[in-house]
Design goal:
The complex is a heterodimer of chains A (462) and B (215).
Chain A: H1 3-16, H2 18-55, E1 61-65, H3 93-100, E2 105-110, E3 113-120, E4 123-132, E5 146-147, E6 157-161, H4 162-168, E7 179-189, H5 194-203, E8 219-234, E9 250-253, H6 254-260, H7 267-273, E10 283-288, H8 294-303, E11 307-309, H9 312-354, H10 356-364, H11 369-412, H12 425-451, H13 455-460
Parallel strand pairs in A: 4-9, 6-8
Antiparallel strand pairs in A: 1-10, 1-11, 2-10, 3-4, 3-7, 5-8, 6-9, 7-8
Chain B: E1 21-25, H1 32-40, E2 51-52, E3 55-56, H2 62-71, E4 73-76, H3 88-98, H4 103-116, H5 132-144, E5 150-154, H6 162-179, E6 182-187, H7 190-196, E7 199-204, E8 207-213
Parallel strand pairs in B: 1-6, 1-7, 4-5, 5-6
Antiparallel strand pairs in B: 2-3, 7-8
Classes of the chains: A alpha+beta (462), B alpha/beta (215).
Chain lengths: 462, 215
C-alpha cells in the first residue's frame, strides 16, 4: 500500500474511535509536556545563569599579577612557576603593553578604585570611585542604565550607581547632565615641578607610559579637584576585576582615572618594595575576545612569567552541575512518556480485538502482512506526532505559567523579572521526534500481532 | 496454537478451467469453504498443491499470496464483509488502494465496477443504508474492481431472500459470460447450483463426492 493511502486509512481509523484515541494521544501529550517542561526549566535556568555570568565580565577576563603579590592571595601557583628562582617579574607599563599586544586580547587595564570625596551642589559626599574600561559597556550591568555610557574613553564624564544617586538627590533621574566635583589626592613624584604636572594633567589628552613614570621612588601627595558631568545612572555596578564586586559608586572612564594618578593604599607598600622608579601595577585585568580564548591567553601570560587567574574552571563545574540536573529532569520527564507509551500499547491491542474482522477483510482483499503492520504503525505514529505537537504546546504553556508565577513573586520582592523556561527549536523537534519514536516502539507488538492474524479465523470472527 | 490437525479437506483433486462457472456443493462442515479459502490463498494446505495460472500457492511466500489475492482473485462472502464506516465508493476503492493502483485511474474503475452491478445511485451510501441485495452487489463490485481472473463466492445468497438471491446469481452469470471470468461458488442450494453453474462439485466430510457437468 502506498504511504498516502496508508496515512488516509490510519487517520480514518483514528477518527473512528475518536474518544479512545484522543485519550491515548492526550496521555502522550501529557508525557511529552512533562518532559518538555522539565527540560525547558533546566535549559532556561542554565541560560539564565550563563547569561548573568558571561555578562558579569568575569569569564572573558584573565587576572594577571606579579608573582611577588601572589602568596598573600591564597592562590596556587601553576606548576611551571616553580622553575629555578628567577627574580619576580614586575608588572609595569612595559609588561602591560606586551600583554596588550597579545593575540585575542581586547584590553588591559589596572584596577583603579579609591575612596574619596565629591562636592555636589555645594555639599560634600564621600564615595568610592572606580575606573571603568570601555569594554565594560557590553556587560549586563549597563543594560538597563539610564542616560548613556561614556561618550569617549577619555571624557570627563561620570556614571552614578543608583544608591549613590539617591544620596545626592531624591530624584536621581534629574542628576543627569549636572556637574560634580571630584576631590582626590594626587600622587606626585618628588622632584617634579608641580606646575608642569598640573598643566599636563588638565589637558586630558590620554596618557602614556612615560607620563605616569615617576622620576624617583618617593612621592608627595597633593589635593586636587576635577569636574565631571553626570551622564548616566546604573542599577548595579559592573565587576572590573576579581573580588571587586559592588564597591564603586561613582564610575569614571578608566583612561581618565589613570591620568588622575590618585594615591592608592598600596602605593606605600609599592614604594618600599620598588627598586626602580617606574609605575608598577599590583594586578592587571586582561579582557579577552571570548571565553574560549581565555585559556590560551592565560597560558601565554604565564609563560611571560606572571601569575594568572581566571574563572574558567568555575564555569566548567557549573556546566557539569547543569548537565546532571538536566539529565535528572529528563529522566523524570521520560518516565511520564513511558507510562503514556503503555497507553498506546493498550489502545492498539484493543483496536486489534475490535478490528479483527476488518483485518481479515483487508487481507482477503489483498493486503499483505506488511500492509497491516504498517497500518498499525502509522496509527501509532500519528498518535505520537499529534501527542508530541500537543505536548510541546502544553509544555510551553506550563513553562510560561511557571515563568509568569515566578515573575509575580519576584515583582513582589522588587526583583527584576527573569525568563525561567526556555524551549529552543531543537527541543521542539527533539520532543516531537522522541514522542513519535516512543509511540512507534509501543506500536511494534500490536502491529506485528495484527499482521500475523490468520485471515480465515479473522473473517469467521463476529 | 496447539490445535490438533483436522483434515477439513482430504485427498481432493479438482481442476477448474478458465471461464468456467463451478458450484461447490455440500452440507456445512463438508470442507467446501476451506477448499475455497485454499484457492483464494487465504489458507495454506498442510500437504498437496494448488495451482493457479501455473503457480503453486502452497509454495508461495505470504507476500506472494497477498499479491495473488489482490490481482488474481476477487472474493464475495455470505456476510458481505463491507467495512461499515466506509461509503460504498470507498469500500469498492479499497482493493485498488491495496494493489497500489494509480490514484487517477481509481475513480473510473470504481464507476465501471459499480455500474456493472447497477448501484451507481448509491455511491455515497454506507453499508448500513443499503439493503442486503445492494450490499452483496456492492461486495461484488469490490471483488470486480481490480479486474481479477477468478471470482470466488462463499455462499453469496446465504443471507438473502430467494428473489434477491436469484438477482445476485443472475449477476454472477452475466459477469461470467460477459467478462469471461472464472467463478467458483460455494453453496448448499442444489437447485440454484444446477440452474446457474456449468458444473457441480459435491463434497462431504472433506472428501470429493462427485464432480460432473450437469445435464
Amino acid at each position: 500500500m502506498k504511504t498516502r493511502d496508508l496515512t488516509e486509512l490510519a487517520a480514518r481509523n483514528l477518527r473512528e474511535a475518536v474518544l479512545r484515541n484522543s485519550l491515548t494521544t492526550l496521555g502522550i501529550a501529557v508525557g511529552v509536556a512533562s518532559l518538555v517542561a522539565m527540560l525547558s526549566l533546566g535549559v532556561g535556568l542554565q541560560e539564565l545563569a550563563n547569561k548573568k555570568l558571561s555578562k558579569s565580565g568575569l569569564f572573558d577576563a584573565v587576572f594577571v599579577s606579579s608573582k611577588t603579590n601572589q602568596r598573600g592571595m591564597g592562590r596556587q601557583n601553576p606548576p611551571e612557576s616553580s622553575t629555578p628562582k628567577e627574580p619576580a617579574k614586575i608588572l609595569d607599563g612595559e609588561a602591560r603593553q606586551k600583554i596588550a599586544a597579545l593575540q585575542n586580547v581586547v584590553e588591559v587595564y589596572p584596577e583603579i578604585r579609591f575612596p574619596t570625596e565629591i562636592q555636589f551642589e555645594g555639599k560634600p559626599y564621600s564615595t568610592t570611585v572606580a575606573g571603568i574600561p570601555p569594554s565594560a559597556k557590553a556587560e549586563g550591568a549597563f543594560d538597563g542604565m539610564k542616560g548613556n555610557f561614556f561618550s569617549t574613553p577619555d571624557a570627563d564624564e561620570a556614571i552614578l550607581q543608583i544608591e549613590f544617586a539617591k544620596d545626592l538627590s531624591t530624584q536621581p533621574d534629574s542628576l543627569i547632565g549636572k556637574n560634580l566635583v571630584l576631590r582626590y589626592a594626587e600622587r606626585q613624584p618628588l622632584p617634579a615641578e608641580p606646575d608642569t604636572k598640573k598643566s599636563k594633567n588638565d589637558s586630558h589628552g590620554g596618557y602614556s607610559a612615560d607620563e605616569i613614570t615617576g622620576q624617583s621612588p618617593g612621592f608627595s601627595i597633593v589635593p586636587r579637584e576635577k569636574t565631571f558631568r553626570i551622564i548616566g545612572i546604573v542599577e548595579t555596578e559592573p565587576a572590573t576585576s576579581v573580588g571587586s564586586f559592588g564597591r564603586g559608586r561613582l564610575l569614571i572612564p578608566m583612561q581618565v582615572a589613570e591620568v588622575l594618578r590618585v594615591a592608592q593604599a598600596n602605593d606605600l607598600r609599592g614604594l618600599l618594595r620598588r627598586s626602580s622608579s617606574k609605575q608598577t601595577y599590583d594586578s592587571l585585568t586582561v579582557r579577552v575576545k571570548s571565553p574560549t580564548q581565555v585559556k590560551s591567553v592565560e597560558e601565554t601570560i604565564q609563560k611571560m612569567g606572571y601569575g594568572t587567574f581566571s574563572l574558567l574552571d568555575a564555569t566548567k563545574s557549573l556546566r557539569l552541575v547543569f548537565a546532571v540536573f538536566d539529565l535528572f529532569l529528563g529522566i523524570f520527564g521520560s518516565l511520564a512518556l513511558a507510562v503514556a507509551s503503555l497507553g498506546i500499547v493498550n489502545t492498539l491491542v484493543m483496536a486489534i480485538l475490535e478490528r479483527r474482522r476488518e483485518i481479515g477483510i483487508l487481507k482477503a482483499l489483498g493486503a499483505a502482512d506488511r500492509d497491516i503492520r504498517r497500518l498499525f504503525f502509522a496509527e501509532a505514529g500519528v498518535m505520537g506526532l499529534l501527542g508530541g505537537i500537543f505536548g510541546v504546546t502544553l509544555g510551553w504553556l506550563i513553562g510560561t505559567a511557571l515563568t509568569f508565577g515566578t515573575n509575580v513573586y519576584l515583582h513582589q520582592r522588587d526583583l527584576p523579572p527573569i525568563d525561567l523556561s526556555s524551549i529552543p527549536w531543537w527541543m521542539v523537534a527533539g520532543a516531537i521526534g522522541f514522542s513519535i519514536v516512543v509511540s512507534l516502539a509501543a506500536g511494534i507488538y500490536p502491529a506485528s500481532r495484527a499482521a500475523k492474524l490468520n485471515p480465515v479465523e479473522a473473517l469467521r470472527y463476529e | 496454537m496447539g490445535d490438533a490437525l483436522v483434515h477439513a479437506v482430504d485427498d481432493v483433486t479438482v481442476s477448474v478451467r478458465p471461464k468456467e462457472f463451478v458450484a461447490l456443493l455440500g452440507s456445512s462442515g463438508s470442507g467446501k469453504s476451506t477448499l475455497l479459502n485454499l484457492m483464494a490463498g487465504l489458507d495454506r494446505p498442510s500437504s498437496g498443491a494448488i495451482f493457479a495460472h501455473g503457480r503453486n500457492l502452497a509454495e508461495m511466500s505470504s507476500e506472494d499470496l497477498a499479491q495473488h489475492r489482490s490481482h488474481t482473485i476477487g472474493m464475495v462472502f455470505q456476510a458481505f464483509n463491507l467495512l461499515p464506516r466506509m461509503t460504498l465508493e470507498e469500500n469498492v476503492e479499497l482493493p485498488l488502494r491495496l494493489a497500489e493502483v494509480d490514484r487517477n485511474d481509481r475513480a473510473g474503475r470504481v464507476r465501471e465496477a459499480v455500474e456493472r452491478v447497477r448501484l451507481s445511485a448509491r455511491l455515497t451510501h454506507r453499508p448500513s443504508e443499503l439493503s442486503g441485495g445492494e450490499q452483496q452487489r456492492a461486495a461484488l463490485a469490490r471483488a470486480l474492481v481490480n479486474r481479477p481472473t477468478i471470482l470466488l463466492a462463499d455462499e453469496p445468497t446465504g443471507n438473502l431472500d430467494s428473489a434477491t438471491g436469484d438477482a445476485i446469481l443472475h449477476l454472477l452469470q452475466e459477469i461470467n459470460e460477459s467478462l469471461g471470468m472464472t467463478i467458483v461458488m460455494v453453496t448448499h442450494d442444489r437447485d440454484r447450483a444446477a440452474r446457474y453453474a456449468h458444473r457441480i462439485i459435491t463434497m462431504g466430510d472433506g472428501k470429493l463426492l462427485s464432480d460432473g457437468t450437469k445435464i
